[in-house]
């Protein structure tokens, strides 16, 4: 009986120890959660007056006491400026300039029987673009051949009547009728030739045989921008069927972003090349215009053109670029004094760059750090070049730890 009582007592002690151990573990876990939440909640009552001009909201601000700062290794410093050579690389496309566009149409309409090109094709002057069928043109050809045949007879009769009148073997009226018929025939024939020439048919071609199709050819060497007709379509007289861009009329439109607006100027040199081209395809050009507005996605346009001398000297590389093709441009800026930050101080979130800036706090025992958006315009060695300095000292040491705390607090809030 004594041994049984001792065993029961030992069992009760063991159960008590296990219960107390479970409570201690739960308290530790709860304490860790409170420590993370405390980064934000300890300063939750300080919601105003952090920093002038800061765009960070309460949820983008962390509050740390002295011990938390020491454990995270937080160090702050003023943003300094350095002389840097900034290289700006932009992507874009070649578009046609309005003064270089050509609309292709036909004097007469008809049924589209053939389309020989597609958008992006390079064509030379006289190359076939499409063919249309028009029976009215068949009538013109027939009338021309008849007029030409009758003209030979009328000319012969007119010459005969003139000789007879000279020998007083015929009357003046007969001569005048023969002359009138011959000249009317010549006028009608000349009109038909003009009609046929307007649709690209020469007298020689008509004499070789009547054609039911009209060949629409490129008026200039160019690039096909768009094809607005399709097989089986009936097009009206003088209706636009295609749009071309003349050689050298392409404009390189590059896309930049808001922070780069102060760096790029009209007249600045630029190295232009196809987006997937090598060094052999690079041609020099210059910036000819800048977009006056910034789009909703914070982008803006840089308009460039190859130098005039480039078109002759680098014709092969230049001619290989088509309207609509993806291209790139590189601008190397002269040394300018710009604010810089170490790479470790900058974070990328949702496609935008941020850093932590120390801001004012109403609690003297706490320091406040705001996640602040910045605009990066370039990189040099292990530093990023900014368009302008943030307002306040920036966290340059322990920034990653601060980022992890901020991320944990956001996840806890969600």
Describe, in short, the structure shown.
The protein is of the alpha+beta class and 414 residues long. The protein is built from eight helices and 24 strands. The strands form six sheets. Strands 4-13-16-15-14-17 form a six-stranded antiparallel beta barrel. The chain has a four-stranded antiparallel beta sheet with strand order 1-21-20-19.
Q: N- to C-terminal separation? A: 59 Å
- Please count the helical segments: 8
Overall average residue pLDDT: 79
Q: Spatial order of the strands in the main sheet?
A: 4-13-16-15-14-17
Main β-sheet description: 6 strands, antiparallel, barrel
Helix content: 25-40%
Could you say which overall geometry the principal axes of the C-alpha atoms support? rod-shaped
| Unreliably modeled segments | 1-6, 29-58, 312-317
List the SSEs and their pairings.
Layout: H1 2-41, E1 61-64, H2 66-72, E2 75-77, E3 80-84, E4 87-96, E5 101-105, E6 110-115, E7 122-123, E8 128-133, H3 135-166, H4 172-198, H5 203-207, E9 213-217, E10 222-227, E11 234-235, E12 240-246, E13 250-257, E14 269-274, E15 283-290, E16 299-306, H6 308-313, H7 315-319, E17 326-332, E18 336-342, E19 347-349, E20 352-359, E21 367-374, E22 376-380, E23 383-386, E24 394-397, H8 399-413
Antiparallel strand pairs: 1-21, 2-24, 3-18, 4-13, 4-17, 5-12, 6-8, 6-11, 7-10, 8-9, 10-12, 13-16, 14-15, 14-17, 15-16, 18-23, 19-20, 20-21, 22-23
